[in-house]
Amino acid sequence: MRNTIWFLKGLRNGKKTELFPEADPLEPPLWPSMLEGKGEVECPTKALENGKWNAGKCIACRRCIPQYMPTGNQKTYSLSKFAPSLLSRSFYLYPVDSGTCGACNTELLSILSPQYDASRLNIFLTNTPRHADALVIMGVYTEGMDDVVSKAYEAMPDPKLIITLGACAISGGVIGKAPVLSDKATVEIAGCPPSPYTILEAIVKAKGGGK
Ligand code: SF4
Ligand code: SF4
C-alpha cells in the first residue's frame, strides 16, 4: 500500500529532473561562481593577485566583497585536454577523499540525486579503481595518501583521467599542498565546494562526445 502511495505521488509530481547541461540551470547558486571585480584585496589563498582571479585557489571566503562579486557563472572548471572518444559512453568515477571537510563529497554525490540525475548522462560512481574511467581527488592532500592514490591510479585501465575537485585538491586551499598526481590532472573543477552544475558540466565535457 505504501509503495502505491509513493507511486501515485510520483505520477502527480511529474518529472523533476533538470535538463541541465542541455538547458540553463534552474537556480544557479551565486557561491561559488566566477568572481569579477577590480582592485587589490587581501586574499588568504592568493587567489587574487594583480587583479586576476584564480578559481583553483579561491576558497569562497568572501573577504574580497564588495570589490569582487560573484557573477553566477558556473563555469569554474578547466579541461587540459579532452578525453578520447572511448570515454564517451558509460563513464565511471572513483572518488578518493584525501582530506575534505565533507562538502566536496556532498556536492559530488548530489549529481546522482533526482534533481541532476547523472545516470541519464551515463555517469556513475564505482567503488573499485579497476572499473573506473576517472579518479576524482577531493580534499587537502596529506602525504599518507600518496601511496593510496598512486596505487588506485595504477589499477585503473587506460584510457583514464584524473579530476581534481575543489580548491583543496587543486591548490591545497588554505593549507597549500596540492595532490601528488595533480600534474596529471586532466580536469580541474574549482569551487569550495563546486556546485553540482559545475561538476556535471565539467564531467560531461571531459568524457567527450555525446551522452
Ligand atoms: S572569496 Fe576567493 S578570491 Fe575572494 S578573498 Fe576569499 S579566497 Fe580570495
Ligand atoms: S575545497 Fe572547500 S568544500 Fe572542498 S574540501 Fe576543501 S574546504 Fe571543503
TrEMBL record:
Q: Does the keyword Iron feature in the UniProt annotation?
A: yes
Cytoplasm in keyword set: no
What's in the keyword line of the UniProt record? 4Fe-4S, Iron, Iron-sulfur, Metal-binding, Ubiquinone
* Cofactor list: [4Fe-4S] cluster
- According to the entry, every stretch annotated as the NADH:ubiquinone oxidoreductase-like 20kDa subunit domain falls at 101-205
Q: Which InterPro entries match?
A: Complex_I_20kDa-like, NADH_UbQ_OxRdtase-like_20kDa
Annotated GO MF terms: 4 iron, 4 sulfur cluster binding; metal ion binding
Query: Which family is this sequence assigned to?
Result: Belongs to the complex I 20 kDa subunit family.
Official protein name in the record: NADH ubiquinone oxidoreductase, 20 kDa subunit
The upper taxonomy is: unclassified sequences, metagenomes, ecological metagenomes
